[in-house]
Amino acid sequence: MSTVALSGIAKSYANFAALNGVDLTIPEGEFLTLLGASGSGKTTLLNVVAGMISPDRGIVSIGGRDVTHVPPRQRGLGMVFQSYALVPHMSVFDNIAFPLRIRRTASAEIKRRVEKILDIVQLGHIAHRKPRELSGGQQQRVAIARCLVYQPPVILMDEPLGALDKKLREQLQQEIRRIHKEMGITILYVTHDQEEALYLSDRICLMNAGQIEQLGTPQELYFKPANAFVADFIGESNLLACDIVAPDRVRLDASGQDIRIAQYASGAANRLMIRPDKIAVLADGESRANEVSGQIEEIAFVGETMRLTVRSGSQAFTVKAPTSHSADRKLGSTARIGWEPQDALLLEAKS
Question: Residue 293: which domain range?
Answer without folding.
Answer: 236-347
